[in-house]
Automatic annotation (TrEMBL):
This is 3 beta-hydroxysteroid dehydrogenase type 7. Residues 76-348 form the 3-beta hydroxysteroid dehydrogenase/isomerase domain. One of its GO terms (cellular component) is endoplasmic reticulum membrane. Pathway: Steroid biosynthesis; Lipid metabolism; steroid biosynthesis. It comes from Leptonychotes weddellii. It catalyses: (24S)-7alpha-dihydroxycholesterol + NAD(+) = (24S)-7alpha,24-dihydroxycholest-4-en-3-one + NADH + H(+); 7alpha,25-dihydroxycholesterol + NAD(+) = 7alpha,25-dihydroxy-4-cholesten-3-one + NADH + H(+); 7alpha-hydroxycholesterol + NAD(+) = 7alpha-hydroxycholest-4-en-3-one + NADH + H(+); (25R)-cholest-5-en-3beta,7alpha,26-triol + NAD(+) = (25R)-7alpha,26-dihydroxycholest-4-en-3-one + NADH + H(+).
Length: 432
């Protein structure tokens, strides 16, 4: 379709222009207004009208001309069937007009991909493992842009530290090397706030930005792996890829993502249902955690991927926190923005469960997980790491993405909240 508009576009534009010119001239004779501008003296009216219409036509023509060549880019999204990945895939299809092919690479392909194959963009589902270099290289070959969102997001002890490292670090190395070997020049990495903190010392990060000094000290396998992977991506910026041009990379650091498809929100909801519609507060309301809507995180990925080529010198090698207008609240209070309207309530237990008791329970959970591992996977939300993270303020306040590549949140807080509540309610229907 876009290609057809190329030649036909100019011809169609010219016909539109002539028809419009005729009508404008007729109208200008009648009501004294020329193409939206107040009519000037008779002798300038006609040139003004023609200029205005000509300008409109040129705009139409250019837009069509641009559309004739735009569908030429191949994007690859690793982890494209995950919580964030699916939103990135759908956002690209909606808001990246230059796409000719969208490759979705994931260990587990979602059935919903089939519904995407009816549009003008070729959607190629690739079942693969980022830890397998040859599978990554095959998927990357020929892509113009790679958005690397595949990762093992585990802070609940489900996967071994070795596996987390293999996926998050070695997998990222494989993506970088595939870009270099095949000549793909633009790589966006989905990093995480946890690359920064909260650190093992429980230091708060209050309204911090990308330049705020903070002692990023980690022991847990997940943040360690994200920090290593991010460093690899940023260090790869400028490396020569096949064909002799430089690789341009950047990393996006979402804070706690929420929205349609968020598994942890789903876990909280089901836990509340099991407890008779109640959730028990474990974290003081004063401990704030930054959260960001998944649609805005997806939009930031799409936008920075588009701007990487045009603003390579500025954006290449940079990190950007993902942010929007979501309010600063404790993790649990924030979740109640969505779970409350769906019938759950947060029971104040701070007097009943002091921090030391919660930490004791968390340690017992970790011990139980270790004892039961040969028999079954016991991975509750409460463990020493999640308690420590939840109990440490971590909020960002930055506009670096806006300054560097014009990012503005696509979804307001109200819209993000409404969409998430609608999703929880749909879960409610399925849970009954
Ligand atoms: N969820 C959050 O709050 C959050 C916040 C900051 C950053 N992140 C980052 O965003 C990215 C996506 O996270 P998510 O929350 O969507 O998690 P997710 O688990 O829903 O998605 C990750 C996807 O990667 C895929 N994957 C895992 N191992 C793979 C492998 N070996 N090969 C190929 N694909 C593999 C999974 O199948 C899944 O579809 C991750 O890199 C994560 O670190 C998430
Ligand atoms: C059981 C209570 C103590 C309850 O309040 C625990 C909440 C806990 C499960 C979450 C609190 C903070 C979350 C993390 C944070 O939002 C950022 C993250 C970075 C991202 O890359 C992956 C997810 C996560 C680690 C996220 C995980 C859940 C929490 C620890």
């Amino acid at each position: 379709m876009a290609r057809v508009l190329g030649t036909e576009g100019w011809r169609l534009g010219w016909c539109l222009f002539l028809e419009w010119a005729r009508r404008e001239e007729e109208q200008a004779e009648g009501d004294g207004v020329v193409a939206g501008w107040p009519r000037r003296r008779e002798k300038t009216a006609r040139p003004v009208a023609s200029l205005g219409i000509l300008g409109a036509w040129l705009q139409v023509g250019r837009g069509m001309a641009e559309s004739t060549e735009v569908r030429k880019l191949v994007y690859l999204v690793t982890g494209g069937c995950g919580f964030l990945g699916e939103h990135v895939v759908r956002m690209l299809l909606q808001r990246e007009p230059r796409l000719s092919e969208l490759r979705v690479f994931d260990l587990h392909l979602g059935p919903w991909l089939e519904e995407l194959k009816t549009g003008p963009v070729q959607v190629t589902a690739i079942q693969g493992d980022v830890t397998q270099a040859h599978e990554v290289a095959a998927a990357v070959a020929g892509a113009h842009v790679v958005i690397h969102a595949a990762g093992l997001v585990d802070v609940f002890g489900r996967a071994s530290p070795k596996t987390i490292h293999e996926v998050n670090v070695q997998g990222t190395k494989n993506v970088i090397e595939a870009c270099v070997q095949t000549g793909t020049r633009f790589l966006v990495y989905t990093s995480s706030m946890e690359v920064v903190g909260p650190n093992i010392k429980g230091h708060p990060f209050y309204r911090g930005n990308e330049d705020t000094p903070y002692e990023a000290v980690h022991k847990h396998p997940y943040p360690c792996s994200k920090a290593q992977a991010e460093r690899l991506v940023l260090e790869a910026n400028g490396r020569e890829v096949r064909g002799g041009l430089p690789l341009v990379t950047c990393a996006l650091r979402p804070t706690g993502i929420y929205g349609e498809g968020h598994q942890i929100m789903r876990d909280f909801y089901h836990q509340g249902l099991r407890l008779g519609g109640r959730l028990f507060r474990a974290i003081p309301a004063s401990v704030e955690h930054g959260r960001v809507y998944v649609g805005n995180v997806a939009w930031m990925h799409v936008l920075v991927a588009r701007e990487l080529e045009r603003r390579a010198a500025l954006v290449g090698g940079q990190v950007y926190f993902c942010y929007d207008e979501s309010p600063y609240k404790s993790y649990e209070d924030f979740n109640m923005e969505f779970l409350g309207p769906c019938g759950l309530r947060l029971v104040e237990t701070r007097l009943l469960a002091p921090y030391w008791l919660l930490m004791l329970l968390a340690v017992l959970n970790a011990l139980l997980q270790w004892l039961l591992r040969p028999l079954l996977l016991y991975a509750p939300l409460l463990n020493p790491y999640t308690l420590a993270v939840a109990n440490t303020t971590f909020t960002v306040s930055t506009d670096k993405a806006q300054r560097h590549f014009g990012y503005e949140p696509l979804f307001s807080w109200e819209d993000s909240r409404t969409r998430t509540i609608r999703w929880v309610r749909a879960m409610e229907g399925s849970a009954q």
